[in-house]
Design goal:
Strand order of the largest sheet: 2-1-3-4
GO biological process, one term: mitochondrion organization
Keywords: Isopeptide bond, Membrane, Mitochondrion, Mitochondrion outer membrane, Protein transport, Transmembrane, Transmembrane helix, Transport, Ubl conjugation
CATH class of the largest domain: Mainly Alpha
Protein name: Metaxin
Number of domains: 3
Function: Involved in transport of proteins into the mitochondrion. Essential for embryonic development.
Subcellular location: Mitochondrion outer membrane
Number of strands: 4
Length: 367
């Protein structure tokens, strides 16, 4: 009879252990289900692309953004596109930027890295290319980056006439206030550094000789591209590839943006097959963007629209002036050019002569 309590204890321990095992199994099963749900949600969530907005009949005004947008269209990648004018709103602080669902690569910025990531997600525009065509793609992309890209940077960001009249003006008008006072010049400096990096010369300075060399390389590159394309619809037949995305991204701004100094544009327009090639891609893959752009720089509005927009224009001008004055005053105070001191209260109780002397001293301090 003395064994029953021990037996009860054994049975209770076994039941408790079985209960713990059941809880562990249920927890593990729930974790597996949650993991499956997370995978399904990650697969269902679209990739998000941040890029510069479009103009002049282009889906984007930026070469790198155009390259990524074109590749995504060619590969059928379901991107959620955010077309913005403030790069600080992107995950990387630059444009283009791809926001992913992977822990290791939360965001990507370079077009080549974005394209590689899309390929890993089974969106491959080069799937049907042969080994030789793949090698040709690498060779022509290198040619674009070494010969054509430097000239594009120069003609848009370094050439004084094009930069002041078109490039800087567009970014200053579209970037939100007050960043439009800061970012255009910052991007200009970044593009100049990029040009120096591509050319392999950290001391590179703009000039006639540099312009001549860059434009000569660009003309030769466009001629080679025209010869390689021939009468084909795309560079490797009837289906576009990553090479078509790169070529379109580099040539489309040159074709559509009207620049005062248009040496490269004139040569591109003389190559009929390249001109039709860019136009066809716009019509086929960006039909809502491919029409003739509105002449917004010198557009004529009705009197009523001018009247309605006048208060907003005046407010923007006033804010711009106040921002500039505040910046100048802050700089003057920081550098010690202007100092601020409090006048003693006793000065108000003395006679007129002392008041005048105190006023003269304060005026000198303001200077």
């Amino acid at each position: 009879h003395m064994d029953w309590p021990t037996s009860d204890i054994c049975f209770s321990e076994i039941g408790f252990l079985a209960f713990i095992a059941m809880v562990i199994n249920c927890t593990a099963g729930m974790e597996r289900k949650l993991q499956k749900i997370e995978v399904v949600v990650a697969m269902a969530a679209p990739l998000e692309l941040y890029c510069w907005k479009g103009d002049w009949g282009l889906p984007s005004v930026d070469t790198d953004c155009l390259t990524v947008l074109a590749y995504a269209k060619f590969a059928g990648a379901p991107l959620k596109v955010h077309k913005i004018t403030n790069p600080w709103r992107s995950p990387t602080g630059t444009l283009p930027a791809l926001k992913t669902t992977e822990e290791s690569t939360r965001s990507l910025s370079k077009p080549s890295n974005i394209i590689i990531h899309l390929r890993k997600q089974k969106y491959n525009a080069d799937y049907d290319l042969s080994a030789k065509e793949g090698a040709d793609t690498l060779a022509f992309v290198s040619l674009l980056e070494e010969k054509l890209l430097p000239a594009l940077i120069y003609t848009q960001w370094v050439d004084s006439k094009n930069y002041v009249d078109v490039t800087r003006r567009w970014y200053a008008e579209n970037i939100p206030f007050p960043l439009n006072f800061l970012l255009p010049n910052r991007i200009h400096n970044q593009q100049l550094e990029r040009l120096r990096l591509v050319r392999g010369d950290s001391t590179l300075e703009p000039g006639e000789q540099l312009e001549k060399e860059l434009y000569q390389d660009a003309l030769e590159c466009m001629t080679l591209l025209s010869q390689r394309l021939g009468s084909h619809k795309f560079f490797f037949g009837d289906s576009p590839s990553s090479l078509d995305a790169y070529v379109f991204g580099h040539l489309a701004p040159l074709l559509k943006v009207k620049l005062p100094n248009g040496k490269l544009q004139q040569h591109l327009n003389s190559l009929d097959n390249l001109r039709h090639y860019c136009t066809n891609i716009l019509i086929l893959y960006f039909p809502s963007e491919g029409g003739e752009p509105p002449i917004h720089k010198v557009s004529v509005h009705s009197d009523s629209s001018d009247f309605d927009s006048e208060p907003h224009k005046r407010r923007k001008q006033i804010l711009s002036v106040l921002f500039a004055m505040g910046s100048m005053l802050g700089y003057a105070i920081l550098m010690g050019i202007v100092s601020i001191q409090h006048v003693r209260p006793q000065a108000a109780l003395v006679g007129p002569r002392h008041i005048e002397e105190g006023g003269e001293e304060e005026e000198e301090e303001e200077e």
